[in-house]
Design brief:
Layout (H helix, E strand, L loop, with lengths): L6 H8 L9 H14 L2 E2 L1 H4 L8 H10 L6 H15 L2 E9 L11 E10 L2 E5 L12 E2 L13 E6 L2 E8 L2 E8 L10 H9 L4 H4 L2 E6 L2 E6 L2 E6 L4 E5 L3 H10 L9 H8 L7
Antiparallel strand pairs: 1-9, 2-3, 2-8, 3-4, 4-5, 6-7, 7-8, 9-10, 10-11, 11-12
Helix pairs in contact: 4-5
Length: about 270
């Protein structure tokens, strides 16, 4: 799979300069640069186009095409890069808890990666939208772990683990997962469901997210917010589809796909004259 992966193009895309090696320093640098450069976005599902998860399509869209993507795209692309460098990578699935009760049991609809280093395994995940990890976590439950953004921790739950982020003084659960290995084909069914089911929130609304040093940017339809690490939040409602496109291109750095005007017209119909 990695024979045709253009590692140099990927490194240029995320703005990583210098050498790479299968070590912790490289892993931390790649995760941070990837998360801050390649935005989380669901434009393809909004456009009625299920994302393609094969290696060539991921590179064409996220690397050469100036686009972002959601969890499967983001973490499968990162997996390609890490394997090309020589990391030992295992893919996993998770059940999302964000915005749900702690005992919620949903489908395995999220993807994360385990990377085995000489001094122990790490968890990385560049695809969780507004709360995506910008750092690397030890696979060690019960300890608070700093990242370039919020602190995170892993807690034991049943026969697996739960990932939590500290926002303000509150710990909030992102998802629960176990360490059963998954392969790219295992994500195809969940990808199809999330990108095509009429009730999927990836189909019914526009989502974009991008962390930056000291802040996180989030867009949900016309609601745009900047969450700062000092605790402050700036919110505004975008006036129309043109302003949404401006924010997608400017703040999130996206090359806008063909057909977006029609999709935004469905999400933001013109006001009915009185």
């Amino acid at each position: 799979m990695t024979d045709s992966f253009d590692l140099d193009a990927y490194l240029r895309r995320i703005g990583h300069e210098g050498s790479v090696a299968p070590d912790l320093a490289t892993l931390q640098a790649l995760v941070f640069r990837h998360a801050c450069t390649i935005p989380f976005e669901n434009l393809d599902p909004v456009l009625g186009r299920p994302p393609l998860l094969d290696p060539a399509s991921l590179q064409r869209k996220l690397v050469q095409g100036g686009r972002g993507g959601y969890c499967f795209e983001q973490n499968l692309l990162l997996r390609q890069a890490l394997l090309a460098i020589g990391f030992r990578v295992t893919a996993h699935t998770a059940r999302v808890l964000w915005g749900q009760p702690e005992d919620h049991v949903g489908a395995r609809s999220h993807m994360l990666l385990r990377v085995d280093l000489d001094d122990g395994p790490r968890i990385v995940d560049v695809g969780f939208g507004g709360q995506t990890l910008t750092g690397v976590l030890r696979l060690e439950p019960g300890i608070e772990q700093p990242t370039p953004h919020e602190p995170f921790r892993l807690l034991p739950v049943d026969r697996g683990l739960k990932l939590q982020a500290k926002t303000g003084e509150e710990w909030r659960s992102l998802y629960r997962f176990d360490l059963q290995e998954q392969w790219p084909v295992d994500y195809e069914a969940a990808n199809w469901y999330l990108a095509t089911h009429p009730a999927s929130h990836f189909v019914t609304g526009l989502i974009a997210a991008r962390p930056q040093p000291g802040s996180r940017h989030a867009l949900r339809n016309a609601d745009y917010a900047v969450h700062r690490l000092d605790g402050g939040t700036e919110r505004r409602t975008l006036a129309d589809a043109a302003e949404v496109k401006s924010v997608l291109a400017g703040v999130f750095g996206l090359t806008l796909p063909d057909g977006l005007d029609q999709a935004l017209a469905r999400l933001f119909p013109p006001a009915t004259p009185r």
